[in-house]
């Protein structure tokens, strides 16, 4: 019977370790807050171009995670991308004239929405729209523009360099 | 040509015959599950031999795989200045693929072959017949508890494999290579999705656990009751489980991560 | 049932046919085994003696013919009815078939724990009584791997009688045992049979041992019964089969040579 007890203890330990591993995968490795972020309030922002922004991308303010993109849609009348952002409930004093931009973390990183606080005394509420938006910097456009400028610049500065 | 076709037909027929027997056997096992839960002591004993005794190999393999992944990925990522992505890369590959698949393959080698050999030897030494003659159904008394234990153990072992692997890559990445610890975890958390990645990985390991245990107990029960028959059945368990797991992994991956 | 229990014959086999694939193993067998007797089924290896036991125990189904045990046709029983019948049958397998992961005590207690709701203290007493009957009360804490072959068979016997069955089947109980063990097992079979009011069916080819304890010997060959009667009947029988088998003659109806073409032709004829 001692042996049976020992087996039971070991099996208990095994199941505990297994569940601990599952909990670690859920809490530490993945973002369980994806579940809890059904709370909070939703605002929209319209962009000319959202680049590679997708649902679930983070929303940050001053680099701090304040919410998440919950949906991306296209407005056929304004020909603009409509991005729905869900902001965590504790960030309830974001001015209405806050501007939103789409940035990329690093060269290969993921797109995210960055908010820049405005100065108004009135705050964003559920259903508010962020009107000041800055489109994504699309790498191809940037490179094209850079090459164009470079070519134009080269023409005028040729004499200075040589 | 004739002979070739005949061989093909014969092979096909015997394959389907085995498949049919396997399915009948599975049905009988499933109907035996309630009584196995009644004898929970038996399940606990099997959890010990199937689960506890597999922890060592699963833990060591998980740690090594995680450490090697950490090293290799770092070398590639550092060229792009993206070594902060080490966490998500390692975590995603472990949680989605390597954890469930490698754990299932190791499970087949450690626990599955042992299950087959044990049941096959019980058959060869007439213990199963003896049980039947004592009016005890061996499927309920012997097979069902082992099936339950394998089914419970496999997802836990896969989770342990992934968790230990991530810790292994953490030690290599942070301890040896100087990746930032905060970036390692926060990048991982922002890239790894609970439903999309972790839960899908767990679903995979549940499916693999079901199939691997099914194959192991069926091969044991269906073994030719001789020494040679049992050793063949043990080999078949490992080979068939590997094929089944790898094939199913492709199908499941296509179903889960195919459309985005 | 009331009628059946008055019946003198416990096992009645009629026109039994059984084949394994294309190979005919039993080809029309009629045997009666009387209550309270020790009956032995003998025959050369591969004549379906063990198969016959499995047919009686309902582990195999006959192709034709019937096996009646205590008035019930074994093949027509449902699984539940068959299990009820098996609780009243014990079987001792050739190797003992003890559960290797249980101690001697737990092996003998197994049928009691599975089929009764007796309290553990009563199970202990019953197990000790059964183990004492086979002389292994002191070995109760050993594992099967620590037992000699003869001891394992005695434990298996204790297990087979643990539910106080009406009959016990022995599959080759003497094979591969030393003379002392054979003597012990022989004596046990006869004594248990008489003391517990059992009916015993033995499958064996150990002529001398079996003749000493059997009331009835049934000789099988080629899937048929070639002789059936008391040991004395068989010894006095003029059947060539019985003579060859009982006297262990190398040649006779069972030929020494595997079928082959003429010896002279094989040596001096044309080679192929």
Which features does this protein show?
heterotrimer, A: about 160 residues, alpha/beta, 2 domains, 8 strands, about 35% helix, about 30% strand, elongated, B: about 260 residues, mainly alpha
If you had to describe this structure to a student in words, what would you say it looks like?
The complex is a heterotrimer of chains A (162), B (260) and C (272). Chain A has 2 domains: 1-30; 38-145, no CATH class. In chain A, 34% of the residues lie in helices and 30% in strands. Chain A has helices at residues 2-29, 33-36, 139-161, and strands at 41-47, 58-61, 64-75, 80-87, 99-104, 111-116, 129-130, 132-134. In chain A, strands 7-1-4-3-2-6-5-8 form an 8-stranded mixed beta sheet, with no helix packed on it. The longest helix of chain A has 28 residues, at 2-29. Chain A is elongated and about 85 Å long. Chain A starts with a helix and ends with a helix. The mean pLDDT of chain A is 80. Chain B is elongated and about 65 Å long. The model of chain B has no long low-confidence stretch (mean pLDDT 89). Chain B has 8 helices and no strands. Chain C has 272 residues and is an alpha/beta fold. In chain C, 38% of the residues lie in helices and 23% in strands. Chain C contains 11 helices and 10 strands. In chain C, the strands form 2 sheets. Chain C has a 6-stranded mixed beta sheet with strand order 6-7-8-3-9-10, sandwiched between helices. In chain C, strands 2-1-4-5 form a 4-stranded antiparallel beta sheet, covered by helices on one side. In chain C, helix 4 (104-115) crosses helix 5, helix 4 (104-115) runs parallel beside helix 6 (149-160) and helix 5 crosses helix 6 (149-160). Chain C is globular and about 75 Å long. The N and C termini of chain C lie far apart (65 Å). Chains in contact: A-B, B-C. At the A-B interface, helix 1 of A face helix 2, helix 5, helix 6 and helix 7 of B.
